[in-house]
Every structure is written in C-alpha cells, then in structure tokens.
Amino acid sequence: MFVAILGQRADIKVRSARASGENLFTVLRSEYQWRKVRNKHISIESCCQMCDTTKELEVHYIVPWHLAPELRYDFKNLVTLCRACHFGFGHWRNWHGHNPEILVLCKFAQLQRSRLKLGDKDEENYDDEPISAYSIMPTT
Ligand SMILES: [Zn+2]
Description:
Blueprint: H1 2-6, H2 8-20, H3 24-44, E1 57-61, E2 78-82, H4 83-90, H5 102-121
This protein binds zinc ion.
C-alpha cells in the first residue's frame, strides 16, 4: 500500500522502521516533509550545480543530516546535483564519505563553464586545456 502512495523509497523506510521498531507515523511524516523540501529545492535550483545537466537530479546535504539533524530541512544545507556528480563529488565515490567542500567545487565548475563559454567566442585567449574538476578529486 505504501509503495503505491509514496513509492519505493518510502517502502524501504517502512521496512527499516518495522525492523528497528521506529514509529511508522514519524518515519512517514519525515519522509513526506523531506519530499516537500526536496521538490521545492529542485524547483528553485533546477540543474546540477557541478555539470549543469537537468537530468537525474538529486538533492545533496552539504552537512550530512545525521551529523546535524537541525539542518535536515534547511534549504541552505542543500545543493542540487545529478546522480553522477552526487556520488562522484558529493561523496567522493563512496556513499559513506562526504565532501565538505562541495560548494567550493560547484563554484569552481561554474567558473570553468563560463570560462569555456568565453573561449568559444575568443579562442585565442582561451586556448589552454580546461582544468577538469576530476583532476582535483582525491585518489584514495
Ligand atoms: Zn552533474
């Protein structure tokens, strides 16, 4: 029944709540609240802040909410990333990790994009290789 109403993610939450003895109502209420905040955030910040795509968008916590529960629904703690950038840059390719400098990286990527756009207009002044954000990703 919950799958039909709230989708697969909510069904996983319901199963885990049942397994751990959490209050089902609390779990579903927080899931509903998160969806409202998430959808509102994506309606405002509607493309990946790393690569600019509008496909497969996800909302990333700048400070993970298990470390700062009071920031769970705080728009200032959210950034829109596509699925690939979320995993690659938001979590450094490990869902247990997180990148505290994600906003700096997003700003860097945005600057690179505007620089490349300038390069399109005036190739002689912008003929060096663009720095890939991937090149500064930690290797371990
Ligand atoms: Zn992206």
